[in-house]
Amino acid sequence: MKNFRIKTLKDGRTMLNLGCGPKTNWEWNNIDFSPYATLARHRTFARILLKVSILDKERYLMSVKIDPDIIRWDLRNGIPFEDETFDVVYHSHFLEHLDRGLALPFLRECYRVLKRNSIIRVVVPSLEAMVNDYIASISALESGDETSFTAHEEAVRELIEPMVYREHPTTRQQSVLQRIVERVVRGNARKAGELHRWIYDSYTLGALLLSVGFSDVEAEDAFTSRIENFNSFCLDLNEDGSVYKSGSLWMEAVKK
Question: Whole-structure pTM over 0.70, yes or no?
């Protein structure tokens, strides 16, 4: 077991954000395995990459907002903390990147490091929301609304593209040099772990949480939570109060 320092809130709670990507709260314990974790911990190196045009400005500005104490760790190797360490375990838009067979072992790890009578909050893309958008676009087309074809194409893209693309849409916006370097360092979307390997609705995700041992499984939204003062951490909300990732499924459960 690695000996990572555990940060504690002023009220004494310990909070864990898994697979955090660039969305961190500096009072939390944040874990990620993406290049953002490396850039956040080596800011001088990030500035050099920006200066020589290997790192684009958008990614650089994103990296400097990340918790500099972020832990770089591959969560496929488990969660590097002792049993019953945290008052809250949270992960957003991470679970869908795991193969279906790895989801259950990962959630067991979440259960293990969570204290008794504490909450896990899981956020994933909502299959139900995507399907509803798709059906609505079909209905609009069938009613003769030809202007809805763009919405239909977008609904199909939202369903399919995250599972099959070879290059992340944001990567396509970079210069040729930046794209080449990123491919060398990270590989394609599959190798980098960017593809969606599964998709959940409230029933399948709820069943998964129950099978691990969690109870009191409930669907929330971006603004509601049983976690005290959760919105103040701006993880599911932007700083202006808008939803960070719309079209999501937000679920919470309790370890009794």
Answer: yes
Q: What is the dihedral of CA 235, 33, 114, 26, to 10 degrees?
A: -40
**Residue 67: domain span:** 15-125+170-255
Residues 147 and 228 in one domain: no
Beta bridge partners of 255: 118
Report which secondary-structure segment, H or E, holds 252.
strand 248-255
Contact present, 82 and 2 (Cβ < 8 Å): no
pLDDT digits (tens, 9 = 90+) for 124-157: 999 999 999 999 999 999 999 988 999 999 999 9
Phi and psi at residue 253, in whole multiples of 5°? Answer: -150, 165
Q: What sign results for the dihedral spanned by CA atoms 128, 130, 134, 137?
A: positive
Sign of CA dihedral 88, 92, 98, 101: positive
Residue 242 in domain: yes
Q: What confidence tens digit (pLDDT) does each residue in 102-126 have? A: 999 999 999 999 999 999 999 999 9
> Strand, coil or helix: what is 251?
strand
- Residue 124 in tokens: 């994933």
166 Cβ contact list (under 8 Å, min separation 6): 188, 189, 190
Position 6 in a domain: no
Q: Is 54 exposed, middle or buried (0-12, 13-18, 19+ CB in 10 A)?
A: middle
Decide: helix, strand or coil at residue 250: strand
